Amino acid sequence: MMPDTVYLIWSIEHSAWWRADRRGYTRHLDEAGRYPHADALDILDDANGQGRLCHECLIPVFCVEP
């Protein structure tokens, strides 16, 4: 992971993207939140029990958007 990269968060548990500001989920990429590196890692740590679970994953925006 790169500190200057912006990330989307995919919820494996909900089969949806996290919305902006941690406000729910969406199946529409254009409605997904874009999170800076530090915020994305914080969300991942909280959601995944600090590495003990795998309910959510980070996807760099450049992997899904041109």
Structure description:
- The structure is a single chain.
- A hairpin with a 6-residue loop joins strand 2 (16-18) and strand 3.
- This protein has 66 residues and is of the alpha+beta class.
- The two termini are 19 Å apart.
- Strands 1, 2, 3, 4 and 5 form a 5-stranded antiparallel sheet that branches.
- The chain has one helix at residues 37-47, and strands at residues 6-11, 16-18, 25-26, 35-36, 56-60.
- It contains 1 helix and 5 strands; from the N terminus they run ββββαβ.
- The model has no long low-confidence stretch (mean pLDDT 89).
- It has one domain (6-63).
Task: List descriptors.
alpha+beta
**Overall number of strands:** 5
State the secondary-structure class.
alpha+beta
How many helices? The count is 1
How far the N terminus sits from the C terminus, by CA atoms, comes to 19 Å
Radius of gyration over C-alpha positions, nearest whole angstrom? 11 Å
**Can you write the helix and strand succession as a string?**
EEEEHE
Q: Low-confidence spans: pLDDT under 50, at least 5 residues?
A: none
How many discrete domains? 1
Average pLDDT metric: 89
